[in-house]
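The pair is quoted verbatim underneath.

:::
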Amino acid sequence: MDLIVEGFRKAFLLIYRLDADLMGIILLSLKVSLTALLIGTVAGVPTGAALSFKRIPFKHALLNIMNTLMGLPPVVVGLFLYLMLSRRGPLGSMGLLYTSSAMIIAQSILAFPIVVSLSYAAINGVSMVIRQAAATLGASQFQCTVAVIKEARYAILSAIMAAFGRLSAEVGAILIVGGNIAGRTRVITSAIVLETDKGDFAVAIALGIVLLCVSLSVNAVLYIISRRGRVGQASEYLWA
């Protein structure tokens, strides 16, 4: 019990003092996850919209693949990227292995199917009345698409936040392709694993607290987004 109490005391002290090593790990984690989220969003939302609006060959097969990849084990992504980026791999000459860039690529791969599948579900869930009304008013295909996406914006934002929630807690892939190098590729989750193995529970607990705060913030944002979405829909219904 004393070990736990002492660990928490030191952990809160590290957070209060804004320990340089601790802040470096946190900032790198945010940089990697947010960059990967941006890439996954920029690629995923248009893909989800295209699957919803356009007649694409093997559409249902693609959707099944995206839904399957939502549960893709991170260690499998890490293994695949390691083989591709290692010296004997086809992309080994790029020198990306054990860098933050490799970690961003890994997390982008994990984020992409989540954003695609949930964005598709959000856009496809918009009432056909909206599409028909836009078409009746003479809107072009692009304008109809924009109108539907605007209607589904809260659900799409929820999809993006859900992807970020997974990325912020991911450890398998980034541990394999990043190598957990101090000051270069050590992020919150990989640092927790290392510090726990070393027996330095104060740092591990401090990082765990930060990770819990990130998860809590993500859930709070998701709640606010869904609440605003319900309120907005109710208001539109009352004014209709």
Remarks:
- Residues 96 and 102 are 6 Å apart (CA to CA).
- The chain has one domain: 2-239.
- DSSP finds eleven helices and no strands in the chain.
